[in-house]
Specification:
Layout lengths: L28 E2 L7 H10 L40 H4 E3 L5 E5 L8 H13 L6 E5 L21 H28 L7 E3 L2 E3 L5 E3 H9 L7 E2 L18 H5 L15 E6 L7 E6 L1 H4 L4 E8 L5 E7 L2 H10 L1 E5 L8 H12 L4 E4 L11 H6 L7 E9 L11 E6 L4 E5 L4 H12 L6 E5 L15 H15 L6 E4 L2 H7 L6 E9 L5 E10 L9 H4 E2 L2 E2 H4 L11 E6 L15 H18 L4 H8 L4 H14 L10 E10 L2 E12 L2 E12 L6 H17 L9 E2 L2 E2 L17 E6 L17 H13 L11
Parallel strand pairs: 3-4, 9-19, 17-18, 21-24, 27-30
Antiparallel strand pairs: 1-8, 2-3, 5-6, 6-7, 9-12, 10-13, 11-12, 14-24, 15-20, 16-17, 16-19, 20-21, 22-23, 25-26, 26-27, 28-29
Length: about 775
Amino acid sequence: MRPMFQYLSGELPEGIEDAAGSPDAATGEVSEMRGLGRRVFLKMSLASGFALYATGAGAQEAAGSGASAASAPGGAGAPEGLKPFQQPSAFVAIDGDGIVTVTIGKIDFGQGVQTALPMLVAEELDADWSKVRCELAPAGEAYKDPFFHIQMVGGSTSMKASWQQYREIGARLRAMLVAAAAKQLNTLAAQLRTDSGSVVAPDGRRLGYGVLAQAAFAEPVPATVKLKEPSQFKLIGKPTSRLDARAKSTGRQDFGIDVKLPDLRTVVMVHPPVFGGKVASFDAAAALAVPGVEEIIQVPLSSGATGLAIIANGFWPARKARELVKVEWDLSGLERVDSAAQLEQFRALAKQPGASVQKADTSALEAKSAATGAAKGGKAAPGRITAEYTFPYLAHTPMEPLNCTIDFRGDRCTVWVGSQFQTVDQAQVAGVLGLKPEQVTLNTMTAGGGFGRRATPTSDYLVEAAQVAKARHAAGRRGPIKMIWTREDDVRGGYYRPTHLHRVEIAHDGKGLVLAWKHVIVGQSITMGTPFEGFMVKGGADATMTEGVAESAYPFPIALDVHHPKVNVPVLWWRSVGHTHTAFVMETLVDELARAGKIDPVAYRRQLLAKHARHIAALDLAVEKSGYGKTRLAKGHAWGVAVHESFNTVVAYVVEVSIKDGRPVLHKVTAGVHCNLAVNPRTIEAQVQGALVMGVGMTLPGAQITLKNGEVEQGNWNDYRVPSHVDAPKVDLHVVPSADPPTGMGECGVPPIAPAIANAMAALTGKRIRSLPFPV
């Protein structure tokens, strides 16, 4: 989602407030950060019909079980104008034994922020890493992203957006510890140093952070701090084991689905078979006869549809009851999507003018031959490529099914959920229950995967749970409920990566020079009708669909149009968003152009990317480490290459592929990554490996969501293919050294792998692949 986050590097889109300052380049001192003004975001949200609740200027939202900076110890000492997200007391606790617990405002669902973000704090704090722990923050003012003023994870921005903030937190607290130690040691603060969780005096006396903590938090919070230079780092940049590794590898990690409370009831939903359907009538007699089933009620869903909630004393009674309940659905007036018909509709749209994103001269495409081109006075185009690419709907299917637990007490509510959008989910639950957001305590739980699915602007499964809690409370029933969506609920109930069709016409000189490039993309918009529409949709075009083409590093004269048909299928970002399809189109076409011009694909890319040093560095590293062009491959094996930038990070893959029974066999992947400074190389390794395998999954037969008569045809992993161990190749990862501030990493490994494999297959077969998943 690079366009959505483009201003993380300083580019503020039109209409966004520059609400704060930036680091002083000369002194290294940091004051305030740039950000999306809350009023602007709220205005966009409300204009989209999305219920967020504004508070008065300077007011604080409750932070649930964690104190906000305004109410936490040390808050009174903060200088006027210091923001909640800059307060050490909201993020760090130190106990008497010197255990440092860092509270992070993000969710961790595998991307490793429970380790990487504490590393930033610990580095500037000079903490003893063996005594550092981590907790996930509840929804709260202090934990809102300093750029967007909502608490969220998305767009591979956790490290990029937190790099300065969390280091500041550590540096501020270090200064406060030194100030407290100076008083106790009766010496000047300037004469003290910090080392591994202690303040050290010139004469060797040491005071541990545990001894100093209480006094330190009573010290004034410094307005500005001097951060370390990269050459001074002791922890950042070093391969570091994850703080949550032991709990997860031993089965002791609690996820949202593990929440247990007294008198807890489980809720399983009956959703309409077609999106937007409503219950016409139902017969619950057989379902209510299942032991443990207490009630079945009809509730509104987030989409305007209605469904049935089955409440039982456990999951299995509720699941069994769902199989027995009889429902008549009202599907009148609904579009009944058919995948085959939709493809034909998209093909027709691709031949029509759409919303223009980029203009370029396409006159060379009008010449059908060198002769007609010369007759018209135009430039002859001896080489032509006309290609149609298709990409299906994709489901997220995280390992942990969607779930949340809600305890509604009338005037307050507590929620336990693995949320990517804490502020949004808190506001949506509050809106359903008739509460203010500060009356809803939202506890962030570790989640078993998400890939974008837990960042839903409609908060669909939370809204359903809130509706059930509201109906139960109105009927006089009390006690917490746990909403659990089964895998089938999620696969058949949306949301999906949109299906897309690309139509591309290219005129070239047969030697690698592109004379004209006409490109049309057809697909649903992810952001229209959401709070992000105000700055993600320009001129009728959703930037999440064109990223990777409109921003391509390749200097091609691309004329780009888009169509956003309205379709009765809910869509959402999916790991790496638009890059999931645009990278495949661009990288396979670049490869095709290279081979048409009889140019080595790596040499051609280096020629085109001459002005992009980070691309060249990542590509050269992958090529060098792979042995491309130097190592003789086994008979029937071929190289495939792709390089792509997403979320400000460049990933290059060189793959070794063979073909067996018409299917590719991926033997090895060599990756070159340029993500600027690598905070924790082990996190980067894990992210590339996981993203790469997910990208391989897009190529597998059965990796698609299809619809017939408005109903999704897949339901679980038996008929919706995801990659498994046998699909995971050997990966050799290399990171380009850099001291520049880090960029994103969570999604960037997905886009280049499918085109790299496709390019290797084309080298072996001479045939180009134009669709995902790969044809059987």
